[in-house]
Amino acid sequence: MADVNRGDRPLSPHLQIYRPQLTSMSSIMVRITGIASLGVSFLLVWWLVAASTSEGAFAFIDGLLRSWFGDLVLLAATWAIFYHMLGRLRHVIWDLGYCLDVPTSEKMAKGMFGLATILTLIVALVV
User: What pTM value is reported for the model?
Assistant: First the structure.
């Protein structure tokens, strides 16, 4: 096996000196919103299972989801679903070979945030 001197190799930039880019932060947010959407889907499953099991169990979870805290969680979940959907759409556009330059990618990242917020407000006002 080759003798590799690991002490002379340069280190990767550390997080404290690396300046995050808008596109990388947007990509991380897509992952976070995907995980958050999965977590909220468990609330939906809990609500459906409680509805099919007992009146007391359903009253508990239904009361939780209809409280101000439940409204806040569901509003955040709506935003997360829209943001994640737009992030997946952005990746499809990139996979097709479009909008790969940095300025356009940064505009798309800002647009994802704004459009997810607008769509969430529309859903909140309609529902």
Answer: 0.82
Q: Would you kindly state where each structural domain of the chain is located, as residue ranges?
A: 24-126
Helix (H, G, I), strand (E, B) or coil at 36: helix
What number of other Cβ atoms are within 10 A of residue 70's Cβ? 15
Contact 106, 49 (CB under 8 A): no
Which amino acid is located at 120 in the chain?
Answer: T
Residue 80 contacts residue 33 (beta carbons within 8 Å)? yes
Q: 96: which 2 tokens?
A: 């097709």
Answer yes or no: is pLDDT of 80 > 90: yes
| pLDDT given at position 4 | 63
Q: How far is residue 57's CA from residue 63's CA, in Å, rounded to a whole number?
A: 10
24-126: CATH topology: 3 helical TM bundles of succinate and fumarate reductases (1.20.1300)
